[in-house]
């Protein structure tokens, strides 16, 4: 029995690839995003623990 030959549809049929465009935005590496997140979490924990003493609330 012969196998039927299947053809795949063409890819990228007129679709724009937005990640190819170079913009003037700030570029942060994934490690930088993780570091900023950890710093913000640490600040949040410190404010939760000592915020009443610092701000008198």
Give a written overview of the molecule.
The chain is mainly α and 57 residues long. It has a domain at 27-55. Helix content is 46%, strand content 0%. The longest helix has 26 residues, at 30-55. The chain is elongated. The model has no long low-confidence stretch (mean pLDDT 80).
Total E-strand runs: 0
- How would you classify the helix and strand content by structural class? mainly alpha
Average pLDDT, to the nearest integer? 80
Order of helices and strands: H
Weakly predicted, low-confidence segments: none
The dominant shape is: elongated
Short summary:
Helix content is 46%, strand content 0%. By secondary structure, the chain is mainly α.
Which structural traits does this protein have?
46% helix; single chain; 0% strand; 57 residues; elongated; mainly alpha; 1 helix
Question: What's the helix and strand layout?
Answer:
Layout: H1 30-55
């Amino acid at each position: 029995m012969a196998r039927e030959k299947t053809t795949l549809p063409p890819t990228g049929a007129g679709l724009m690839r937005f990640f190819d465009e170079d913009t003037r935005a700030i570029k942060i590496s994934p490690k930088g995003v993780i570091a900023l997140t950890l710093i913000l979490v640490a600040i949040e924990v410190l404010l939760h623990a000592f915020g009443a003493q610092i701000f008198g609330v």
